[in-house]
Amino acid sequence: MQSPHSIFVPKTMLATYDAVAALTDTFCCDKLNDEYRDLARAMTAALCRKRPSPLA
Predict the structure, then answer these.
(1) What would the DSSP string read from start to end of the chain?
(2) Positive or negative CA dihedral for 25, 27, 30, 31?
(3) How far is 43 from 55, CA to CA, in rounded Å?
(4) Is the N end or the C end of the chain the one with fewer CB atoms within 10 Å?
(5) Distance (Å, rounded) from C-alpha 17 to C-alpha 45?
(6) d(Cα 45, Cα 16) in Å, to the nearest integer?
(7) What pLDDT is stored for residue 1 in this prediction?
(8) pLDDT tens for residues 22-31?
(9) Sign of CA dihedral 40, 51, 8, 20
């Protein structure tokens, strides 16, 4: 199933996205489920797209 949320991430923020996604993926795998993982990825991508990004 494809997520309705956009996962576009600017090239300058890809490393940050990957680092945060790895942390949230691990947590969601251990404590939650795939739906929460997809939601966390979408939220991380949204934060990476903001200008200025709070993750920078």
Answers:
(1) ---SS-----GGGHHHHHHHHHHHHHHHHHHS-HHHHHHHHHHHHHHHHSSS-TT-
(2) negative
(3) 12
(4) N
(5) 7
(6) 10
(7) 43
(8) 999 999 999 9
(9) negative
Two tokens at 3? 């997520």
At a CB cut-off of 8 Å and minimum separation 6, what does 9 contact? Answer: 17, 45, 48, 49
Predicted TM-score (pTM) of this structure: 0.83
Whole-number Å distance between alpha carbons of 33 and 47: 21
Of 51, 52, 3, the C-alpha closest to 21 is: 3
Q: Is 41 exposed, middle or buried (0-12, 13-18, 19+ CB in 10 A)?
A: buried
CA distance 30 to 45: 21
